[in-house]
Amino acid sequence: MEKRALLYEGKAKKLYETDVENTLWVEYKDDATAFNGEKKEVLVGKGKLNNEISSLLFQKLHEEGINNHFVDRLSETEQAVKKTTIVPLEVVVRNIVAGSLHRRTGIEEGTEVDRPVVEFYYKDDELGDPLINDDHIRLLQAASPVQVKDMKQVAEHVNETLKKHFSDHGLLLVDFKIEFGTTEDGKLLLSDEISPDTCRLWDKETRQKFDKDLFRYGIGSLQEGYTEILQRLGGAAHG
């Protein structure tokens, strides 16, 4: 497979065309951002870690019957994915109160919820990716009611699968964000990435944080946290 023209560059990844039909080439960057890009830094090795972790997790989901866009890991920082048109929504699933859920509700951080909280955010940098409900989604024509229902079902299945998978490796899945795309024939497909950039992950016993909050709030080394996650999942650590 041959890498061709750059299609898009986001905060954490670059996306390229390839010579294979309906297949794209993703390059993970070392850039770290927080607070909608207000905090930025280059953290050497971050791209390698996220690429390997995301590859492992997409493969795990595929084994559990959850279709996704992942095709193959091409190098330390690159992977091949199926081409999709991204739905302009972020789906967030929360198992433990943290982050914006704590700030919005006043519920103490670390409180376990009795059932997962599923939220939708509208992907718009100028608006700050606002939290929206089903009526807003319909008003914005961001997705059809059937797509919203399907995204919720897949998100809940992903949550059940990854909660157990992380727990088996001594980690708590606090919350996570996923995105979906539509294929050329209109099918909804889990896309983007699943990594410590998009998941809050704590040690099951001590509740030590190993995710992007380390960078977001300046409370530790992001590379060390991500390396710990990769090692627990059985991947190779990068220096």
Automatic annotation (TrEMBL):
Pathway: Purine metabolism; IMP biosynthesis via de novo pathway; 5-amino-1-(5-phospho-D-ribosyl)imidazole-4-carboxamide from 5-amino-1-(5-phospho-D-ribosyl)imidazole-4-carboxylate: step 1/2
Keywords: ATP-binding, Ligase, Nucleotide-binding, Purine biosynthesis
Gene Ontology terms describing biological process: 'de novo' IMP biosynthetic process; cobalamin biosynthetic process
Pfam entry (one): SAICAR_synt
Source organism: Marinococcus halophilus
PROSITE patterns: SAICAR_SYNTHETASE_1 (PS01057), SAICAR_SYNTHETASE_2 (PS01058)
Domain SAICAR synthetase/ADE2 N-terminal: 6-232
InterPro entries (UniProt xref): SAICAR_synt/ADE2_N (IPR028923), SAICAR_synt_PurC (IPR033934), SAICAR_synth (IPR001636), SAICAR_synthetase (IPR050089), SAICAR_synthetase_CS (IPR018236)
Reaction(s) catalysed (UniProt annotation): 5-amino-1-(5-phospho-D-ribosyl)imidazole-4-carboxylate + L-aspartate + ATP = (2S)-2-[5-amino-1-(5-phospho-beta-D-ribosyl)imidazole-4-carboxamido]succinate + ADP + phosphate + 2 H(+)
SUPFAM superfamilies attached to this UniProt entry: SAICAR synthase-like (SSF56104)
Enzyme class: ligase
Protein family (similarity comment): Belongs to the SAICAR synthetase family.
Catalytic activity, EC: 6.3.2.6
Name under which the protein is recorded: Phosphoribosylaminoimidazole-succinocarboxamide synthase
Cross-referenced NCBIfam families: purC (TIGR00081)
MF-aspect GO terms: ATP binding; phosphoribosylaminoimidazolesuccinocarboxamide synthase activity
